[in-house]
Amino acid sequence: MSVLVDDDTRVVVQGITGGEGKFHAEQMMEYGTNIVAGAVPGKGGQEAAGVPVYDTVHEAVEEENADTSVIFVPPAFAGDAVFEALDTDLDLAVAITEGIPTQDMARVNKRLSETDTRLIGPNCPGLITPGEAKLGILPGNIFAEGNVGLVSRSGTLTYQVVDNLTNRGIGQTTAIGIGGDPIIGTDFVDALELFENDDETEAIVMCGEIGGEDEEEAAAFIDDYVDTPVAGFIAGRTAPPGKRMGHAGAIVSGSGTGTAESKISALNDAGVPVGDTPEEVADHIEEFLG
Amino acid sequence: MSVLVDDDTRVVVQGITGGEGKFHAEQMMEYGTNIVAGAVPGKGGQEAAGVPVYDTVHEAVEEENADTSVIFVPPAFAGDAVFEALDTDLDLAVAITEGIPTQDMARVNKRLSETDTRLIGPNCPGLITPGEAKLGILPGNIFAEGNVGLVSRSGTLTYQVVDNLTNRGIGQTTAIGIGGDPIIGTDFVDALELFENDDETEAIVMCGEIGGEDEEEAAAFIDDYVDTPVAGFIAGRTAPPGKRMGHAGAIVSGSGTGTAESKISALNDAGVPVGDTPEEVADHIEEFLG
Amino acid sequence: MKLHEYQAKQVFADAGIPTPESQLASDVDGVLTAAQEIGYPVAVKAQVQVGGRGKAGGIELVDTDEEAREAAESIIGMDLKGYHVDQVLVEGAVDFVDELYVGITMDRGEGKPVAMVSTKGGVNIEEVAEEDPDAIAREHIDPSFGMHPYQARKAVYDAGVDPAVARDVSSVLTTLYQLWDDRDGADAEINPLMVTADDEVIAADAVMNIDEDALFRQPELAEMEAEAAGSGDDLEQKADEYNFDYVRLEGNTGIIGNGAGLVMTTLDLVDHYGGEPANFLDVGGGAKAERIANALDMVFSDDNVDSVVFNIFGGITRGDEVARGINEALEQFDEIPKPVVVRLAGTNWEEGMEILNEDLVTVEQTLEDAVQRAVEYAEEVNDQ
Amino acid sequence: MKLHEYQAKQVFADAGIPTPESQLASDVDGVLTAAQEIGYPVAVKAQVQVGGRGKAGGIELVDTDEEAREAAESIIGMDLKGYHVDQVLVEGAVDFVDELYVGITMDRGEGKPVAMVSTKGGVNIEEVAEEDPDAIAREHIDPSFGMHPYQARKAVYDAGVDPAVARDVSSVLTTLYQLWDDRDGADAEINPLMVTADDEVIAADAVMNIDEDALFRQPELAEMEAEAAGSGDDLEQKADEYNFDYVRLEGNTGIIGNGAGLVMTTLDLVDHYGGEPANFLDVGGGAKAERIANALDMVFSDDNVDSVVFNIFGGITRGDEVARGINEALEQFDEIPKPVVVRLAGTNWEEGMEILNEDLVTVEQTLEDAVQRAVEYAEEVNDQ
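YS: structure for the whole thing
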């Protein structure tokens, strides 16, 4: 089993005629993802990456029974693209785009409370169920089928940790990049809940970073509801306050909230060991799996 | 029993320091309504109609445990006052104000889908449970305790019909004026459902008028779900298309929707007799009650 | 409140919607000058607030000075469905290959705005809606968010608009929604939105109805309303001055009452008892004596009226105030111009009855009796 | 992107928020002229993007030309927490009886904006938030509706603002939210919002941070950003030109990587293995050779840097492109300025390894080894 995505998932790619959209649509197909359509206003009737393109997501859903969208749309138009996905009858929308204005995401966040469609991202690498399908830009070759669920705010850090796991022969059920923005669709708690309810997931890696309080909330959730063992990693221990460390969401506030210390101690209090290095995270997981 | 309001209802009056607000607060109290506070920005700490005035509805709720608001606020500010009421933890808000811009009410309508607070009105006379309490501007003396539920889009037409009932010795459980605007909080279907579930209500009067399709929807609802006998009245049979007949909502469209004929025939099809005169409505009710 | 075509076009053009070059004119010379400046062919269009101007002879397409003069002479000053034509819009004719429809209105059933697009523009859209509802693409708007750009595109693509102009039509629709939202529109529409052979879109007509309840926060539009006045019915203008909800009808029994539903019911009963209502007049809640007198003045001013029924059920309105108003209004006449039947009920009706001068009016106890008596009076006058 | 005080005040004043009379000056004469025109007492305020200017000597209240000259001489050109003061704002001093705080920010936990009001203005609001959280009234805003007028009032009354100014403070808060919303604000605040003895309110300071991701639709503010530049760190300016996510730190191990989380992790590992990170530099996803070379140029330009760790885990980024960029950047040197440790993993890492000129760099296979090696190099340089 796996969560959110498998080889039955029928994908429409918003922005499939753009450079990135086309490249990654092809990469996803190569990995085995069932891309059924693209959606680009004004490009209806064309073909891209070997699938038909529609002017609207609604048409793609009607004509090709897409149930999931992956969004590669430039930041100025991405908020609107996310609304379009959320207002269509999809199960899942994955927004890869980095740099969507925060106020656009606040409005998206409001809409999320009104719809059953799940959003992952934005500013995320997407998610992958090794051996079945990937949605987004993750490099498929480093992943392996297995029993570890992984959720992370960062893309390349995810690859690093996965690499450490795969090199030891530890595969993954599903890996989810939830994104590095201050306002995102699916958060740690949502992802932890999915893994906790997944029969195949026997251990969970959670890669957090400075900024906000999602990791603290996740720690509380783990304490209360998660029986699956969790190992953590928190990036940004050395980040100075008030500086945005690459991700729009990765910032320790001037008043000192959102620090790595706070997150690590919350996780430790919830019984989650936090590695000092990615290797140490793999050590903990290896231990969990016995 | 009764619906929505009784002598336990704890009322805050928004706009209690205005001429109408004060007058009707006093009238309501005289009738027995439990007015516990007023809310008027900038008038906090004063007293009006013998109750304390607060700057915000929230304070009135916190300090006086109000559970219901009656709104007498001029149209330019009434939309905001309704939002304030809906965002407070109230059971019921009754907006008497006539002339709230329709776009304000469309936004209120959106909020209504997000809250558990019920709105009655705007542009309505309010509601009354004879012998217990009234919320709004209805003349208490024409009502009598009894077993007929009444719901109406019009104020004075309600009084006329009630008068015809009361004169025959037929009293009312609760009478609800839902208001004459195109966008209102509680509609016929909502009110019919309340009466259908009320043990004491043995017959229902429903006074509709031209414009919109609420009466048609009510007819369908009656057909499917209402066992209590209903008698109807529809005002505006002689109204020409395209003219607003007093109420913002009372208009037969240029294309001929919203006519009295359509409503009367829908009600008849649902087994609801529609009186040609208010007296005939009372005849039907008398018959129902045997 | 409905803007004139020329006003709505100005509002649309200011917001960036392409409109044809045009000038307003109120006499033949003005039309000729405008036509020459714009260049033939031009359309000469009566500026009155009624639909179907074209069929009624209010719009002429002209190619020469001679034709322009003829059109100006026939249209300016004409009576168009009861409205006097004072002004015409002289407008460059557009060479079109397609006529679209775009509009925004409030869907009261849903309680939210709806955007509409159709490729069947240039004809009565309500007829299209009835005969071929699928020819109109509809997109409901969440008024808290406003119209998302994708919704404009979706409506345009769903309607099957030619891809070559889809982007421009979406943009017009987006602007139209923005205007509707900013200006408290009731309806805003462009019919037809013309498409030229060069794939340009241009608003050949413009409709903008404003929510009257919102005019207090639309001072610019309220001024336009004043400008737009003058072409309406005299009695309806008087009602505006008195601030009455008033609708003029064709019959001879005048009706005054309080509360929209009750007044409508009174009209219906006049009809039910064989009479013909002359008007709808709602004095509103809590009317004082002066307002009551004004209402009588309104109805007496209508030459069609042969009798009056005055039906008050007092809630906020007090019977004694009503009675005083009736006395004041009638006592100034040597002879009462039309017979008045009065029925008072509700708050202070007994006090009202005591005050009321029964030499001047006929009193009835019930609504039904009052209406029947007024209808009889009107018939008697007609029989004379 | 943070506006200067004088820019934020202009934006606030244009929107109708009362601000003191003020003029910008960049030399002593300018300060004197401004002070005389405004009239003493005035405040002379350093225009640099740091908090705590007052305590650091960047704000002086002066009563005479003599004092103004002294203040101008001491402030203009001073180094204030690492920033060079080029300009001062000369501003009429406000005689106040109360200092309030009003602000709007994004509550990321809730995913919605929050409006804040406190009667404890004039001090660091974050300290107030920690020590006496109830002293700040908070009202969350639904971003689809925007701030309802009642919410502004509620925040103001909840904060216990004097009723005499409650209406004006609500109005300032409403305007502030509108600005925050229209201008893509991250934070907007007025601290203090002064209250005078005459019950007038006036914004004595102004903070406006703009969401950098939204600057594309805020051309006016983007221009202000250009104006505001010039007072920052040289390297940070260079990073802006190269369009890198870059943060300068105090250590001596330079760090280049791809992806925010991985770069942060590399910093953390430098610290973990006993070194001190000199910077955060993220080349982003899919960097081509030129961009890689630019990154090396950035880090070499930092005099503090003694060694560099180059850590790439390729997803979109390709190892061969990275290797080519490193070669290109380093082959132009006769002598490599600082030792560079490279670790390539992920997409095309093997191709990268083949291309990489190992005469120019030290190659390590794992992140941990690469960081340790770079820390050792930096220590060696320091030991020399």
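YS: worth flagging: The radius of gyration of chain D is 25 Å.
IM: good catch. Also The CA atoms of residues 341 and 362 of chain D lie 5 Å apart.
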